[in-house]
Design goal:
CATH topology of the largest domain: Triger factor/SurA peptide-binding fold
CATH architecture of the largest domain: Orthogonal Bundle
Distance between the termini: 41 Å
Mean pLDDT: 87
Radius of gyration: 31 Å
Number of helices: 12
CATH superfamily of the largest domain: Porin chaperone SurA, peptide-binding domain
Largest sheet: 4 strands, antiparallel
Strand content: 5-15%
CATH class of the largest domain: Mainly Alpha
Length: 328
């Protein structure tokens, strides 16, 4: 029976290999950290340097974005989350060892080989020198990779192999998340804008100019060339070309006209905020919604992933409840 269980876990471990990337910068940072006791988990120690190694990328991002008390609060939060993650990892590794599962050496060796190939162009010497420069031995690196494989294997082991999402759940999700299956509606727009006041302050003359421009277009004038001559907005030199735009780009009155116009149609003069606008929609895309049949596969996959995550979280919560955990 134990051999059967061992085979199951090892198979899951192999599947999990691809999601365990190397992060060379993290090793360099860890080697420089000042140690201290962060937590004890059933007798296993977690150090401050391990916490800061895990939270380091998040902290560097925060340092580039925030300052003062907000920065301090966010860094504290990042370290608390990192410590929680490390505690959970340690509990999972302890559960792995308690079950007497094993990961053969060749699994770890293959993982190291993949890292050298993917991150160092297959150059083993460069990989070894990188570890040495960061004060890591190959044995220490392999130990870390072994623990990552253990965690992934145990998480996968607690997910049912043949999980399914019921038709009722799929239909309910589709009904509640209809917008998720509707593609973004966009139009390819050209616009001519004529100021209502201009320098002369003669609004009537400017409106007459807008009517003249509309007449030229109605008589077959090219919209692009006409815009280059008469338009007064920032797209004038591009022939009034706004490119592809979505909703909430234009002012509401202009958007209402633009998104309801047929492709190729030129609008009448739109008087808005003291200016005169003439629009042309050259193309449309999006705005269509997948049917339930088309979306079913994606919904089923998402629901199964969510259920698997919930199963894993409940399992880890059970490990926490039974464990002796002390933080400092």
């Amino acid at each position: 029976m134990r051999n059967v269980r061992r085979f199951i876990v090892l198979s899951l471990a192999v599947v999990g290999l691809a999601v365990l990337p190397i992060c060379s910068a993290a090793f360099a940072q860890e080697a420089q950290q000042v140690d201290g006791l962060a937590a004890i988990v059933n007798g296993d120690v977690i150090t401050y340097s391990q916490v800061r190694q895990l939270s380091g990328p998040r902290e560097r991002l925060l340092l580039s974005q925030l300052t003062g008390q907000e920065l301090e609060n966010k860094i504290r939060e990042a370290r608390e989350l990192a410590l929680k993650d490390l505690i959970d990892r340690r509990l999972i590794i302890q559960a792995f060892k308690k079950e007497s599962y094993q990961i053969p050496d060749h699994i770890v060796d293959q993982r190291v080989h993949d890292i050298i190939r993917e991150n160092f162009g297959g150059d083993r010497n460069t990989f070894i020198k990188t570890l040495e420069a960061q004060k890591y031995s190959l044995g220490e690196f392999k130990e870390k990779e072994l623990e990552r494989i253990m965690v992934q294997a145990m998480r996968s082991h607690n997910v049912k192999a043949q999980m399914i999402a019921s038709p009722t759940k799929i239909e309910d999700y589709y009904r509640k998340h209809h917008d998720e299956f509707t593609s973004k509606e966009e139009i390819k727009l050209r616009m001519i804008m004529i100021s209502g006041q201009k320098d002369t302050g003669n609004a009537q003359a400017q409106k007459a100019l807008a009517e003249e421009v509309l007449g030229r277009l109605a008589a077959g004038g090219e919209f692009e060339q006409t815009a280059q001559v008469y338009s007064e907005d920032s797209t004038k030199d591009n022939g009034g070309d706004w490119g592809w735009i979505g909703r909430n780009t234009l002012a509401t009155p202009l958007e209402k006209f633009a998104f309801n116009m047929p492709v190729g149609r030129i609008s009448n003069i739109i008087d808005y905020a003291g200016n005169y606008y003439i629009l042309k929609v050259e193309d449309k895309r999006g705005g269509t919604t997948k049917s339930l049949a088309e979306a079913r596969g994606d919904i089923e996959k998402k629901l199964i992933q969510e259920e698997a995550q919930q199963l894993q979280e409940r399992w880890v919560a059970g490990l926490r409840k039974k464990a002796y955990i002390r933080t400092f």
